[in-house]
Amino acid sequence: MTTLTINGKPRQIDLPEDTPLLWALRDHLGLTGTKFGCGMSLCGACTVHVDGEPTRACVTPVSSVVGKNIVTIEAIDQDAIGQKVQDAWLALGVPQCGYCQSGQIMAATALLQHNPNPSDADIDKAMSGNICRCGTYQRIRAAIKQAAGSKESNS
Amino acid sequence: MNKTIDHAELTAENEISIVNISRRGFLKDFALSGFVLAAGLPALTWADETATPTAQDKYGADAMPHGWVDNPLVFVAIADDGTVTIICHRSEMGQGVRTSLPMVVADELEANWLHVKVEQAPGNEVRFGNQDTDGSRSMRHFFMPMRRVGAAARQMLESAAAAQWQVPVHEVHAELHRVIHPATGRSLGYGDLAQAAAKLPVPARESLRLKTPADFRYIGKGQVGIYDGRDIVRGLGQYGIDTRLKDMLYAVVARPPVFGGKVASYDAKDALKVPGVIKVIELPSSPPPAEFNPLGGVAVIASNTWAAIQGRKALKIEWNKGPHGNYDSVVYKTELEAAARKPGKVVRNESDVEAALKTAAKRVEAEYYAPHLAQAPMEPPAATARIVNGHCEIWACTQAPQLSHDQVAKWLKLPAEKVTVHVTLLGGGFGRKSKPDYVIEAALLSKAMHGKPVKVTWTREDDLHHSYFHTVSVERLEAGLDDQGKPIAWLHRTVAPTISSTFGPDSKHQMPVELGMGVINVPYAIANLRIENPEAEAHTRIGWFRSVSNIPHAFAIQSFVAELAAAAGRDHKDFLLELIGLPRRIDPRTLGDNWNHGESPELYPIDTGRLRLVTETVADKAGWGLELPKGRGLGIAAHYSFVTYIAVVVEVAVSEDGILSIPCIDVAVDCGPQVNPERIRSQIEGACIMGVSLATLGEISFKDGAVVQDNFHQYQLTRMDDAPREIRVHLLPTTEFDTPLGGVGEPAVPPIAPALCNAIFAATGQRIRQLPIREQLRKN
Ligand code: FES
Ligand code: FES
Questions:
Q1: What is the value of pTM for the model shown?
Q2: By the CB < 8 Å criterion, does B5 face chain A?
Q3: DSSP B201
Q4: Which atom of ligand 2 is found nearest the CA of A104?
Q5: Cβ(A50) to ligand 2 under 6 A?
Q6: ipTM of this complex prediction, to 2 decimal places
């Protein structure tokens, strides 16, 4: 038995310790918001936060995140910045199929948590690990800026 | 464990939110009786070689399998609390159909969108009309039926209110979820009227009073948010890969690496030792043609996806490669080129090209190559099946719910009514998920596991190795210019393996559907013109990819027009407009195109005036003709497909080292009436990215019969840092809703690659004739 802290709660799993966090989340804990896109840290669909850092769950063995604070898309609205990102996503109609958007939102939230006013170059750097096959990049960029702006105006 | 109920636990307990029509509230008796008012005739299928005007006397939705249905009792249910449930029968894959089609119903129904719920129809075309979600057809074919659905339901509510108040029906009207009698100030909510309304007859189609566009509340406005948006941003959207059923097993399949191959022998000993692996099952391969048949191979069943993947790695399999074991993209390209340099089957001929070429003041020729592509939707194919009491239920991200249904029934030898296909959200489709091979796999594996729920997940490697690939092509063009630089001769040879090879004996020739995608129906006013289609043999499963054969055809033709303009010393935009010629409405049949995207040639002629207008508009918006700094350039392309007119200007910047960036793309779109302009814009933006992606990076290649690219490090897709920095979509204004609609999902893809390559030429003088561009511009 391994105990992981996911979205602030202890969750127990009984899996070989090299099992990637992605499959523990999806198949054992039913947290299917974290998506599978490549399994090789190439697409960002599986992005979660581990101690606040955007992390590819598909290449993260469960054994490596024991005792760490894991946040998934299902709980990102509990973070004020996460919520602003979600709101901006909806206001600008970012999603098309939506499949990559969990990972995009997790990456964007982490970016804004670390850097409240990212430049275009910062956004490129933080977001280029996340593929969107539907091609929503322009709106993602705009939504990040909107979320950053709304954070400012509210503070 | 913990007390808080999060979505995960809810999902696990409730399994999945299954569309259950009998559970729906209000018009439920009617919904269940479900009489169908109309059904169309079977359509020409992809593999149909006989697209002639006499064979096809139905067009549009009428010509699709099971046509359309406009019965409000099939699509609308109203609960006592006023909640209006609207069925969406087309698959949501990012185009916004679960928003846009119900929004059309809601508008005519005078429903308040805030009180509208959308439910996804299972695969059942007799009941709902055609559900094949491809061909950029959903809105084009269902705008009017969905308007009638909403109007009929509205009139039933109005009649019910009038009867209750005992006033003539023309004295009442529906307004935002209520029916009002202005004379007396009385009003009733939809929830109060639904019972009585449900007992009334459905008004005859001729008696329907459709709104005038001035009264539209949502149509044409674009203010309605994406229906599934809230779920998506919270990670709660249910895609095919997310299905979870009680006691579900997880499967991955090792498929023959070479198309047409099969398992020679395998050893599962080590696989079965992997913790979590439950069983290893051989799946049969099928003889050609490929159709929608699963590829066969060896399946690993496990208690979770990861264990199944690990189990598959531990399998030892010997494969028989079969007849395509030598397929090699490098060799094949030279074969296509050789074919393109010799005469082939003539598919259109006007006057005398040979003679005109001989007398031309200048001759220009060029060959263009476009490789195989994989659709690579972000969600790879996935499907879940279970069989309970001889009834097979499927949950799948499918563009083809009815086809999936029929194929499962066929493979499991079940009667039609013993199969139900639930359609989940699709994490992208792009044509891949029109082919239900993966759905059949799930059904076969559930059967092998005695009906237990089995989810088959495709890894990215599976997706790239076993797509139904976009074709690979060489397009060879030759033209003659007169002494004024005006084209007088045009010879185009198009060579590409055909989609029809997937469905029957390989004719080695493109079928009318493929030729009608921008090659045969080129609307240019050139006196001497011949189009030939030499043979090409298929060595893999050829399928459709967003915008299909328009991609190579537009790439070649729109690049070649730029080359001709350069040879003539003319401005490309002016030259292109001259080639398009004066505004005229061309019957596509006179161009040898009897297919016309399945639409009526009378309703949908090729309108060169519209092609001109998008071209002029985009040139204007992009600042065509202005001086640009060194290393910058604009390129233009215009292409008509899916009965929509698109012109694009791409701006590029190419550094001294040959590093390409794309500051801006302008796109002008004339798709006829715009039902949901907001989602149209998002589709066009996405198409620009996909076009850039395939032009700069996209390539699937084969070696020793198998796909070379395993994952996104090799099959690269455009990422944010290389995406166009700005995409400006210019929708040509339309106010009329009585002109026919054009397609939206696909037609912006084809002109991107040529506009990009034309811009590169403008910036650098380097002409790209082989896709993808990849490192071709690099200086060191
Ligand atoms: S699934 Fe983890 S990065 Fe792609
Ligand atoms: S929205 Fe479909 S992959 Fe990004």
A1: 0.94
A2: no
A3: P
A4: 4
A5: no
A6: 0.97
